[in-house]
Each structure stands twice: as C-alpha cells, then as structure tokens.
Amino acid sequence: MNSTLISLAFSSIMGSTASTVVVPAMDQSEWQVSGNQFQCRMQQQLGSMATLSFRQEPAKALELWLDMNSTHLQLQDVQGRLVPADWQPGQYAPALQLAATEVTQAHARFVEQVPVVLQQLQQGYWLELWLDLPGQELSLKVPNLKSAAALTEFQRCTTSLLPLSWEQARDYQLHYLAGERQPTAAGLAHLQLLARYIKEDKAIRKVLIDGHSDDAGSSLANRLASEERADEVAARFIEWGVPKKQLEIRAHGNRYPLARNQSNNRVVLRLIRSAG
Asked: Which pTM value belongs to this model?
C-alpha cells in the first residue's frame, strides 16, 4: 500500500498491545468533496487500505464512515481520537474518544462526536483510528492537509440539502377537525417542504393524494368532503410548482376508517418512485 508503516508498542484505549502505525503517503492525502441535494460527501483515500468519508443526508445526523478496500482486513472494532499533526508533536489535541456505532467486517460507521471531529479538522488536527483486526491491531493516522477549501465546499453542500429525507417525504398524513377543508398552518408548512422535495427528486413519477372523511354525514356528503380536502392539497402543490400531471387525486369518503375512536378526517400523501 502507498503508506508509511512503523511498528511500535503503545498503550491505547483498546488495551496495551503491540500495534502497527499506518500513515498514508502525504502527497496522496487529500479530501475530495462530492454531492447534491440528497447527499454530501467529503472523503479521503487512505492508501490502498481504506476510504474515510464524512456523509450528510437530508434531515439526518452527520456520519463518518470507514470503508475497507482490502478484503483480507476484516474489522472487529474501531475507535479513534484527535491527534496533532505529525510536525506538531508537542501540541495537545482536544480529548475526544470516538467509538463506532456500527461495525461490520468491511466498514465502520460513526455518529456520536462526528460534528466535533469535523469542527476540529478545521483547526488543523488529525484523526487517529485504532482498527481491531483478527490477530492484529492497526493504528491508522488520517492526515489533514490543505483541507480549508474542501471543508468550505462540504459545508456549502450541506446547506443546500433538501429539508426532508426520503423516509420523511414518501408518506405523510394531514389530519382535519370535523367540517374543516383547509390544512393547518403546520400542515401547510410541511406541504411546502414536500413540494420542494417532489420537484427535486426526478425519480418521483406519481404523487397519490387520498382524501378521507368520517361517517358524520351521508355517503355523498362524506365523499364530497374528502374530495375537497384532496383537491385543496393538489391546488397547493400546483401553486408551488409541482406538475399537475404528477398528481393523482382520489376521494374515498368514509370507506376506509381508521381504528375506533380515531378521526378519519385526513388526507394521505404517498410518493411513488420509478423502479430502479
């Protein structure tokens, strides 16, 4: 691998043991940024051994991923800490213990403390990861060289992320009081976020808008109430730029009630993506 290997003994947070320190080649250590409205990523190739990446998705926590490129290196646990740059051995780094939230043989995912790590990279600190492998331990140092531009670009990308994740957008219900036809202020706010998501996600081919009502009136009156609610939601979407041809409006009246003692006055929205 294109890395500097130094074998030494040291006492780590994983126990007192002989470990191998791996430092990727400095001239190949560079953060690369990529992304769009659905995901932002800042990553660095750590020689031929692994890839380390910060990942941010809409409405989700910032995560740090270590993906192993070598199939013969199988992870059992990964921990880490901040360290000074190699040319600043006398400097103290902020005390921080990084523990993986999820570990498989091929990758480790971190959630806790990740924003702090990213913030400290801006201050010039490096990251050191301890890899617990079958029969051996590796100390993997992550250089942090000329990172200012990449960090700025990554932050710019994260600010342009959509306000909703797919999980938040694909199913949503608006609830109404008896006799009401207009969504609440909170409902309208969410609909506006949803309209932005629909316009940006080109994989969405259909938006189902299903109106429902309780059984307070006649079948005709109940169906009319459910239709008016669904039509109002569709009108809002069209006003905010969602193509009318994407919308499919259905009025069910009181045919599909919720559980007993639950109001059925609602509009259900479901986003349908193209296969693949």
From this structure: 0.81
First to last CA, the chain: 36
Say what the pLDDT of residue 216 is. Answer: 87
Q: Is the distance from CB of 212 to CB of 254 less than 8 angstroms?
A: yes
C-alpha span between 156 and 154 (Å, rounded) = 5
Name the phi and psi angles at 92, rounded to 5: -95, 135
Which residues does 98 contact at the CB level (< 8 Å), separation at least 6?
64, 79, 80, 81, 110, 112, 113, 117, 127, 129
Q: What is the phi/psi pair of residue 71, to 5°? A: -70, -20
Number of neighbouring beta carbons within 10 Å of residue 71:
8
Adjacent-strand bridge partners of 60: none
Q: In this structure, are residues 191 and 236 in contact, taking their beta carbons and an 8 Å threshold?
A: yes
CB 151 within 8 A of CB 121: yes
Helix axis angle, 219-239 to 185-200, nearest 10°: 60
pLDDT digits (tens, 9 = 90+) for 238-275: 999 999 999 999 999 999 988 777 889 999 999 999 97
* pLDDT on residue 14: 39
pLDDT tens column, 2-42? 444 433 333 333 344 456 888 877 777 899 999 999 999 99
Please report, as a single letter, which amino acid is at residue 40: C
**H/E stretch holding 234:** helix 219-239
In sequence order, the β-bridge partners of residue 46 are 50
**Contact indicator for 42, 52 with CB cutoff of 8 Å:** no
For residue 182, the surrounding DSSP H or E stretch is: none
In whole angstroms, give the CA distance from residue 155 to residue 162: 14
